[in-house]
Amino acid sequence: MTRLARQHGAINLAQGFTDEPPPFPLVWGAITALLGGSDAGIRRLEQFPTTGPAGLAAGDVPVSLRDALESLQGRRDELNQYSYPFGLLELRRAIADYTDRCSGFAPDPETETTVVLGSTEGLAAVLAALGRRGDGVVVLEPFHEMYPAQAEVFGLEPRFVTLREEAGGTGWGLDPDELRRAAAAATLLVLNTPHNPTGKVFAPDDLETIAEVARSEDLVVVADEIYEHIVFDGARHRSIATWPDMRERTVVVNSISKTANATGWRIGWVLAPPHLTPAIRAVHDTLVVQAPTPLQKAAVGLLGMPPTFFRELARGYADKRAVLGDALRAAGFRMTEPSGAYYFLADYRGVRDLGRLDPLAAAMHLIEQVGVAAVPGDNFYGRSKEGERYLRFAFCRSRETLAAAAGRLICLAPAG
Ligand SMILES: Cc1ncc(COP(=O)(O)O)c(C=O)c1O
User: Fold this and answer.
1) Residue 78 lies in a domain
2) Contact 36, 42 (CB under 8 A)
3) Which of 47, 102, 302, 345 has the fewest C-beta atoms lying within 10 Å of its C-beta?
């Protein structure tokens, strides 16, 4: 009814939301959180005096930023209210253009693009919509914890395929036969590239193997591409949706979380072919209605940023990778250099004080004795014991934080 009311210019007495703005303290709280970024930043803004925009303040008498903004609050409100469950059309169009520019295919904003609460909710809606209780879901391990956890929530059965670190730290290999065996009893396959936690950027050969298995076993591939811009050393992210005949069997989940340093905003999207979209939208609408309207409006601006912005993203992370990577290697960790995302899955067996410990004990030693937190590697594996040699370190923190961590990790380095 709201949609039709807009279309026909009708006065909307159908849906339960107002056309008046929320109380100013609420909006001010959001502005100071967004702009200040921390409690200290909020205090700075609260104390900020300004002479106010022209015509607002009397003469040169300073007014606070808060008072100046309060006097500017709009009277008629749309953007703090419910909006179309599948996302503002403006944002869905921006997502379609962005995907066309960055990934080389253009989803239809009306029938293929749904705005969700981050890729986490996107994946949940996809698994709930497309999986039937007891269906197998191929999950490559090591994995992001949410893949098998969500599969289990929806009564699906994870079928693990293990990526193996190649000798000499040259990459992470996918065994096509193991993949075929797992796929034979599955209907869905979750692919994450660039990959957390290994940093693998799936090469054309890998994608061809996965596509061939998906076609022959009639699988839908759910491609989690949230690290799409974070690639190093000439690696190139490719979406499996662009592979021959894969568009109609690929669902991409993505978000602004990693691209915009905005993990707390919970703005993401699902790109699915028209025959799969309605079921996904039905789950999304039923469970969460929509992603926050004002933040959707803001995301339009992000996706329209020039290509240089997205390209520059990786450069900053490459420097950070070097800072933490050098420190870990000096401490005795061994790892395959990640080609994408922002993690080291580091083999700690050669580290003096950690080598004999199991992953949880090693992580506890690091926290308690060294003052650095990492995730035990077995957390990322469901079947194989390979994870028992790894700890995962994130290098997405600020350079100062990483330098401080490096300073602490030195105490693990062999004497002399
Ligand atoms: C591979 C992967 N997928 C999804 C997520 C969660 O993304 P979002 O914030 O979009 O829900 C993460 C977060 O770390 C991740 O590493």
Assistant:
1) no
2) yes
3) 47
Q: How many A from CA of 282 to the centre of ligand 1? A: 22
- Kindly state whether residue 80 falls inside one of the protein's structural domains: no
| Ligand 1 pocket member 199 (CB < 6 A) | no
Q: Please indicate whether residue 118, judged by its CB atom, sits closer than 6 Å to ligand 1.
A: yes
For 340, which DSSP code? B
Number of domains composing the chain: 3
- At 130-169, the pLDDT tens digits run 999 999 999 999 999 999 999 999 999 999 999 999 988 8
Ligand 1 in reach of 119 Cβ (< 6 A) = yes
Tokens of 376: 């035990």
Number of residues that make up the chain? 416
User: Which H or E run contains 221?
Assistant: strand 220-224
Residue 405's domain spans which residues? 314-412
Residue 182 CB neighbours (<10 A): 23
CATH number of the domain encompassing residue 359: 3.90.1150.10
Atom of ligand 1 nearest to the CA of 224: 3
